[in-house]
Amino acid sequence: MELAPIPHNEAERQGIITRMRIATFDAEPELDRITSLAKRIFDVKSATMTVIDHDRQIFKSRANFEKLESRRDISFCGHAITQTEPMVIKDARIDPRFSDNPLVICDTPVIFYAGMPVHHHEGQPVGTLCIFDDKPREMSQRDIDNLKDLAYLVDMVLLLRFAQFSQKRLMQSLDEAVRQSMIDPMTGLWNRRGLDEILDRELAPEGVPLTEPCGILLCDIDHFKCVNDTHGHLIGDEVIIRIAGMLKNHLRENDIIARVGGEEFVCVIPGITRETTPKIAEKLCNILRNTPINTSEGKTLGVTISIGATWIAAGCSNDNRKAIFEIADAALYRAKQSGRDRVVFTPDVNEQHNKGLFEQH
After folding, report:
1. CATH number of the CATH domain containing 50
2. What's this model's pTM, rounded to 2 decimal places?
3. Rounded to whole angstroms, how far apart are CA atoms 253 and 258?
């Protein structure tokens, strides 16, 4: 039997697992959906998302599998995390690495196994998405591609889960005076100072390449001065609070939302694709357009927003954050100049001036 190898960067890998807080048995509904889907797609006996901890493998998510953990040294997944492509064992009984493995010569044997590493967003493998059965199986190239796609979804779930903790950890680490200086008191969102701080923690400090793609939405309430002039500043404050609530309710918990001006908001959406960024912006415009605001004075106001959006690719330089937000601001200006209540997603015309800084649609 060939014992599972230890990666050369094991200490770094274990440090990442500790920071991600995934070596637990906590329920993970999003991961459970993926393992259940894997079991159905491949019509196998079981599927798991497995974390390779120090001396054990933890079955973080399980589809038709009862164990919570087992020894790392005899694990199939301990081998799989050292590879860049799926490890496929069609029949472990005739594979010299596994033929006398305790998991193969038991009453409930693992005969077929296919596992794809899943990763922290910095690229370190933390575990696998794997499928297995008690009889031999074949894997077509299409099956392998499907397993890789499902493993990528696990990567995204882990990324969003980690990002979700980032803002919470920041809040917990601040004393009350500092915390209040970073929060907009009216809406409870980050203010400009808080936005800069969380961007350093959530994305990357300035000068460090971005570890994930990111959408940026700059939102401005249309004709807000008219709201204040017509209905008074108290009603204007209610409008700001309602729109802040709409943004929080319709974006994810880990997305970064800040109020950076009287009627201006910034939404930073980590892990989003370039194609999805304008769709999210359009969704927010549509929701507000179709949801009149009822004020405390019994008035019903129809309020809209304009949004300037851009998108930054993973791996791009983050050495000029001001320029990135200037692109979104220019897009917002065009949205307001062209009629308001709309999204302008900056076209790909900036590469000559800021080559390598970011990509735009």
Report:
1. 3.30.450.40
2. 0.55
3. 13
